[in-house]
Amino acid sequence: MYASREDIGYDFGDDSKAGSKPIKPNPNIDGGWAWMIVLSSFLVHILIMGSQMALGILNMEWLEEFNQSRGLTAWVSSLSMGITLIVGPFIGLFISMCGCRKTAIIGGILNALGWILSAYASNVHYLFLTFGVTAGVGSGMVYLPAVVMVGQYFQKRRALAQGLSTTGTGFGAFLMTALLKYLCTEFGWRNAMFIQGAISLNLCVCGALMRPLSPKDVVSEKYVARSNSEDNQAKALSHSAETIKSNGVLSEEPEKKEEATNEEVLDSVQHIEIGGKSRSGRSMYGLRILKTASQLTVTVRKGFAIWYSSYFGAASLFTNRVFVAFIIWALFAYSSFVIPFIHLPEIVKQYNLPSQNNIFPLTSIIAIVHIFGKVILGIISDLPCISTWNVFLMANFTLVTCILTLPLMQTYVSLAVVCALIGFSSGYFSLMPVVTEDLVGTKHLANAYGIIICANGISALLGPPFAGWIYDITHKYDFSFYISGLLYMVGIIFLLIQPCIQKKQPREKSTEEAQV
């Protein structure tokens, strides 16, 4: 196991220059404007994830309006939730080119447009395009920047900050469910979606709050992180770091050459513009358009180069075996959390517990404790003597144990206890960005976390139908829990095996050198 969360991290470049001279930390890192970023991310989680958790209200309205099968109608909400996460890698490209602020503002407009256009739906297939795709892509363009910005602004208290911001999902589930239920009752579902679209425009305000850090601030943040880290077991992943640096696609030289070429293009345009002051106003206007187009081309090329090298270059994220194991884990993890929400109503009905469940629903227990779990696990992970990686693994072990034992519970009290443990242990979701940043560094957080949430999106999209298919074959909900729990355990085993392999490789290499 790792001694601290810095021990499992490595960067893709050589930051020896950045760490050679002490730089005064920016007051906005771990304080100041950083808390406005947390507020912005908190509101994003309310408006996006909270709204998606409340889509059951609209799903009933769509069933009554369009008279389609439950399976077909359910794909509307599944598409919206799945696409929000699956588009993560492509949103990373937008962030590389435009930055988090512009990406989030554009996403807010697109999300609101999806809600408003859905108010005029004439059939379910229309909703696939407007709500599933349009609103889903817009949600993804806001969600990823909201997570990335918190990671950039916090170093010492990253886990707590991520925990506080992601609690917006739990609060949003309660608020948006009550709001949509009220709007549908008073104004009908079409007007309710139109109003919700107007409310979603507040995502643009949240995006405007995502003030980017200057390059000096990023360097300062790296220095603070390095000065506070412990190097007890940093050699565990040194082999992967050496591989990345030796391949060198993300090294500084190609970037410098590209920047030099781009500056030459811009300088030539500016020279033409200065030399042409005596020309007509129309020619000057054309030169200004050419200059703007050249600057835009430079930005797009630079952003695409970073995005492409992160995924497909010799120094891509996939050369980090621990990160690849993390992706495999993500493919199985999210569906295991969703399945209890699907089958708990049937469990309650089978054991004749509806009266007790109506007083305090089991799903509500999961949702409420989930909020506290995110904050408490974040506080624990930020303690100096505690490793975020170890907390993350322990929470996963607790969750998979609960998933496997839940079908064995037959009383309301025992089910409530297991559901509370599921809610608390699933609070590790707030640690996912922290672990990702520890693995790849702040510079590559957007692209790396985009891959992770994409894997979660695939899990969320295919997990519930898979569970339903198992139930249709076996006519028992137990097998859905057992199979999903075993797959989840496979993902956890990958997380345990890969760090051990990474730790052994440098030792084997040194032994061979000694023999030579």
Provide structural commentary.
The protein contains 23 helices and no strands. The protein is globular and about 80 Å long. The protein has helices at 16-20, 34-53, 55-66, 70-86, 88-98, 100-118, 124-153, 158-166, 168-187, 189-200, 202-208, 215-228, 238-247, 252-275, 281-312, 321-350, 354-359, 362-381, 388-405, 412-425, 432-440, 445-474, 478-515. The two termini are 32 Å apart. With 516 residues, the protein is mainly alpha-helical. The longest helix is centred in the C-terminal third of the chain and has 38 residues, at 478-515.
- Which structural class fits the helix and strand makeup? mainly alpha
User: Which band does the percent of strand residues land in?
Assistant: under 5%
Name the overall outline. Answer: globular
**Tally of strands:** 0
**Share of helix among residues?**
over 70%
Biggest sheet: strands, sense, closure?
A: none
H and E order? HHHHHHHHHHHHHHHHHHHHHHH
Low-confidence stretches: 1-22, 219-258, 504-516
**Oligomer category:** single chain
What is the CA-based Rg, rounded?
Answer: 25 Å
In DSSP terms (H or I, runs of 4 or more residues), the helix count works out at 23
Q: Distance N terminus to C terminus?
A: 32 Å
Average predicted local confidence, pLDDT: 75
Topology:
Elements: H1 16-20, H2 34-53, H3 55-66, H4 70-86, H5 88-98, H6 100-118, H7 124-153, H8 158-166, H9 168-187, H10 189-200, H11 202-208, H12 215-228, H13 238-247, H14 252-275, H15 281-312, H16 321-350, H17 354-359, H18 362-381, H19 388-405, H20 412-425, H21 432-440, H22 445-474, H23 478-515
